[in-house]
Every structure is written in structure tokens, then in C-alpha cells.
Design a protein that fits this description.
This protein is of the alpha+beta class and 123 residues long. It is 46% helix and 20% strand. It has a three-stranded antiparallel beta sheet. It binds FE2/S2 (inorganic) cluster.
């Protein structure tokens, strides 16, 4: 059902955890399954310098969030906002269609964290 890459990200998620002194946090819930995703960011000069996630989600949510963090690290906030769940699925070499909603959790939490960061710096 899952690709090797998906299993690899799930078994050894490099970006799982919390950033205690995060510059921004974004939290979203999945309407379909009720799972929750929290994304932590460290930002320097508009670039994502560190990123971590915490979730109560499933295998697909953990693997796709980890893959998404890999894509987002080192990107500017504006470029990171353009990451789509389809790119994340590509990064995993595919995901079963019934699990697509799980991969949306990560990108939605990232978007929320970036929005929160932008709000904070504009205040
Ligand atoms: Fe809830 Fe996958 S089933 S995130």
C-alpha cells in the first residue's frame, strides 16, 4: 500500500518534534478524520531555518509531513507557501488516493504557521 519512501519517512521522521523557541507555530485539524497537526518554524531573514512537526495523525500524515518539511527547509516563506500536497506526494513516490487528505494536514499547518509569523512581524 505504501511506497518505500513513505515507510522510510514514517519509521525515521527527521523533522518530528517540537521547537521550544519557535518563531511561529501553526496548528490545524483534519476535518475528515479529526487528527491534528502542529508545525513549528524558526525563521531568519524570511527563510525557514528550522522546521518540526507534531501530529496525532496516521502513517501517511507522519510521512508526508516529514517529506514536506524536507521540501520547506531552506526556502523563503513565500516559496514555502507554494508547496502543494501534490508535490509532497511526489516526494513520497506516491500515496494511496484515500490518504491524500492526510498529506494536506502538513501543508495546511505550514501555511497557518507562516500566516501567524507574518501577522506577528507586521504587528
Ligand atoms: Fe487522519 Fe491520516 S487518517 S491524518
Amino acid at each position: 500500500m505504501y511506497t518505500e519512501k513513505t515507510i522510510k519517512h514514517f519509521r525515521n521522521p527527521k523533522f518530528a518534534g517540537e521547537i521550544k523557541d519557535a518563531d511561529a507555530v501553526g496548528e490545524v485539524g483534519n476535518m475528515k478524520c479529526g487528527d491534528v497537526m502542529k508545525m513549528f518554524l524558526k525563521v531568519e531573514d524570511g527563510v525557514i531555518k528550522d522546521i518540526k512537526f507534531q501530529t496525532y495523525g496516521c502513517i501517511a500524515a507522519i510521512a508526508s509531513s516529514d517529506a514536506m518539511c524536507e521540501l520547506a527547509l531552506g526556502k523563503t516563506l513565500d516559496d514555502a507557501l507554494k508547496i502543494t500536497f501534490k508535490e509532497v506526494i511526489k516526494q513520497l513516490d506516491d500515496l494511496p488516493q484515500i490518504k491524500f487528505h492526510c498529506s494536506v494536514l502538513g501543508t495546511a499547518a505550514l501555511k497557518k504557521a507562516i500566516e501567524n509569523y507574518k501577522k506577528k512581524v507586521s504587528d
